[in-house]
Amino acid sequence: MKLKKYIYFTIFVFLFLSLIACSTENGEVDVASENNENINPDVQEPAPFDGWVEGLPQITAPEGFDWKQFEGVELNFISENTPPSSAIAANIELFEEVTGIKVNIEQTDLATVVEKVGLDFNAQSAKYHLIYADPYQILAKQSEHFFDLNHFINESTMPQIPGGLEDFSASQLEAAGYMGDKEELYALPYDNPTMVLAYRTDVFEKYKDLFEEEMGYDWTPDEDMTWDEYYEIAKWITEKADEGVITEVEYGTGHQAKQHDSLMADFSNILAANGGDYFEKDDLGTIGSTDPGASAMDSDIAIESAEFYNKLLQVADPGSLSWDWTGVAEGFASGNIAMIPEWHEFSAMFEDENSSNIVGNVAWTTMPTGKEGKAHTYGGTGIGINKYASDEEIKAAWLFIVWSTSPQAQYMILKSDEGGSTPTRNSVYELEDVQKGMEPGTPESEEMPNLLAMKPTLKAWESENAYMRPKIPQWPQVDTFIFTELSKMLAGQQTPEEAVKEIADQTNRLTNK
Amino acid sequence: MQTNVDKAWKNKLEAKRIKKRFSTEFWMLLPSMILLAIISIFPFLYLIYASFMDFSISFENPEFIGLGNWKYVLSDTLFWSSWGRTILYVGIGLVLQLFIGVGMALAIFHLPKGKNIVVTLWMIPVFVAPVVAGLLGRYLLNSTYGLYDWLLSLFGMETQVLGNISTSMPAIILMDVWEWTPLITLIVLAGLNSLSSEPLEAADVDGANYFQKLTYVILPLIAKTIVVALLVRSMDILRFVDKIRIATEGGPADSTKVVGYYLMEVAFKFQDFGSGSVLGLTMLVVTIFLGQFFVKFMMGKE
Hints:
The complex is a heterodimer of chains A (513) and B (302).
Chain A: H1 2-21, E1 40-46, E2 60-63, E3 74-80, H2 83-90, H3 93-99, E4 102-108, H4 110-123, E5 130-133, H5 135-142, H6 150-153, H7 170-177, E6 187-191, E7 195-200, H8 201-206, H9 208-215, H10 227-243, E8 251-253, H11 261-273, H12 300-314, H13 325-333, E9 337-343, H14 347-350, E10 362-365, E11 376-377, E12 381-385, H15 391-404, H16 407-415, H17 426-429, H18 432-437, H19 443-447, H20 454-460, E13 466-467, H21 475-490, H22 496-511
Parallel strand pairs in A: 3-4, 3-5, 8-9, 11-13
Antiparallel strand pairs in A: 1-2, 5-12, 6-12, 7-9, 7-10
Helix pairs in contact in A: 2-16, 11-21, 12-22, 21-22
Chain B: H1 2-50, E1 53-54, E2 63-64, H2 68-74, H3 77-109, H4 115-123, H5 130-140, H6 147-154, H7 168-193, H8 197-205, H9 210-239, H10 242-247, H11 259-269, H12 273-301
Antiparallel strand pairs in B: 1-2
C-alpha cells in the first residue's frame, strides 16, 4: 500500500511540476522577407492595395517583394468593439486579396479584451496574433509580451511604415507605442478618441437671448467657456426645462458617470483642467513608468475638483449614474440633453438618422477651461503583435499593421459606412476633402460625419490641452479605485473629500504592497 | 493437516486474484485519475501555490511573498463588504427562488390539463444564457429607451434602477430569480411526480385539508428534492456573475459587487493572480461548507 501511495504521489508531483514548468522561451525572430535574395531594398515599389489617393504617403515594398509570401497564414485580431475595427472588418478583403492572409477580427468590450489578452500572454499561447493594445489597460502592464516593431523598421527587405513614424502625432505615438522608455516600439497608433464637448445648436440658438437677458452673457459654448459657466448654463437649462420654459431638452448636461472607466475619463477633464493629476510624478501619461510614486489625490485641487464634479452631477440627467460613454451618447442622441462631454468619435452616431433624433443640431467645441487651463482626456489605442506567435505569423501581422495604420487605410476608415474613426495620420488631415469635411453643411461632412468634431479635437490634441492618464502597470487597479470611490461620492455615500482621500489611500497601499 | 495446507493455498490464490484484479482496475482507472488530476487537483494545488506568490511584476517569474496576498486580501474592506453583499444576494435570491419555485411546482402539479405547455413556457428563461439575461435587464431598465423604466415612470417611479444603490441589487436579484426559479420548479416537480399516492390517500381518509396535506405530507416527502435544488442553485449563484458584469459592473458605488465579481476583477482585470487565488480559495471553502450543510441536512432526513 505504501508503494502505491508513493507512486500516486510521484505522478501527481511530476505532473504538477510539469504544468508549472510548462513554458516556452521565445527565441530571436528572423524578420527578413522570405525571398530576400531577390529583393532590391534600394528601389521601392507601390503596394497593390486599393484605396490610395493623391496626396497620401503610399504603402510601398522593396523591389522584388512578394506580397503573397504569407498566403494561407491565418491571423486572429482581438479588438475593442470600436468604429475603426468595424471599418477594417468591413473592408478586410482589400488586405486579404493582396496578401492571401486570412484575418479573423474578434470585437468585444474592452474589459473582455483586457482579460483575454492577459490570459493569452500569460499562457504564451498566441491565440491572438494582433492585439488592440490599449496603452493603459494592456500595454502598460503587458509590454514585455509584445513584439518590438523596431525589428521591422530596421529591416530593409520588408515593407516600411508609409510616411514614417513622423506622420503620426508625436504624443499619440509615445502614448500608444512605448512603455517606460523609447528603446522598444510595441504598437502603432490605431485610433485616437478624445473627449470634447458636444452641444445642441437648436437649443442654444433659441434660448440665447433669454439666457443673456437673465444671466448677462452669451452662453454659446466656445473655447472661452469655463467649467463654472458650464455648470451655470447646465443648471439654468435643467431648471428652465423643469419649469416648462425649455421644451426641446430635459436636462442641461449628461455624463458618463457609471461605476466604470468612463467615470474616471469624465472626471479627469475637470481634475486636469484645474491643474491636478492622479500621481505626484509628472508626465506619466506619455512614455509611462513602472514606478508612479505617491498618489496626488489627497491634494486640495483633487478635493475641489471632486466637489465641483459632485455639484455638476446634481443638475445632470439622473441617468448619468448608469451611463458609460455609449449610454450618455444614446441619451444625448435621444434629444433629452443639451450638452455632454463625449468622445469625438460619437459624432457619426449623432448625425445618423437611424440612431439619433438630433441630426444636424449638434456642434462641438473644446472642453471648458478650469483653473489652470483646458484638459481633454485622450483615449487612443495602438495595434501590436503578440511576440509568442510564430515567425511567419509575426511577419504576416506586420503586413497587416503596415496596411491598417497606413494613411490610405485610415482615410478609408474615416469614410466607412460603419461609422468610421478619425485618422491617426497627420497627412490625412491635409487632404482637401478632409479639410472641407470639418465644416458643417458641406457634402464632405455628410460623407465623413466624424470630421464635424475634428476642429476642437485637433485643438484638444495640442500638448497643453491633451490629458493623458498615467500609463503605469497598476493602472487597472488605480482606475478602479478612482471610479469606484467617485461612484460612492455620487451616490451620497461619502463626501468629495472622503472620496479623494480614499483613492489616495488605496493607491498608496497598492503601490507600496 | 492436509485441509490446513489446502486452505492456506486457497487463501494465497484468492489474495493473488484480488491483487491482480486491483492491478487491472488500477490501470484502467489511471487515465481518468490523471485527467481528474489535470483538470481538478493540479489547478487546486496551483491555486494554493499562487496564493503565496506575487505575479504583479512578472507572470513567468513570480516572487514568493509568503502570506503577503493573504494579509492584503483579508485586510481589504472590499473583501469583507463583497462577502456581505454576497450573503444578501445569495440569501434573498435563494429564498425567493425557493418560495416561487416550489409554489409554481405545486401549482403545475395540480393542473388538471396543459402541464407540458406550462412547464415549457415557464422553463424558457433557463435556456437563456446568463449574459443575455443581463443584457435584457440592462436594456429593459435603460433610462433612455427601456420598457420597464418607462412603465415605472408611469407609476411615478422616476428612479434609475441600475444607477441607484437602493434598487440596483434588488434588480440583479430579480434577474437571477427570473432566470433560475424555473430550474427549482423543474426539480421539485420531478419530486412531486415521484410521490407515492398512498400517504396522500391516507391523509384524505384522515380528513386532512390541503394545507395540512401540504405541511405534513407533501413537503416532508419532497424535502430532500428541495434541498438538492437549493444545493445546485447555491453553488451556481455564488459563481455566476455574468448578469452583474453586463448590467452594473459591480456599481453603483460597489452596491452589486459580490465576491464572485470581485474575484473576476482581481484575477482577470488586474491580473493579480496571487490575490485572486486567495479569493478563490475563500470561495472554495465557503462553497464546501455550504455543500456540506445541505448534504448533512439530507443525510439527517434519511
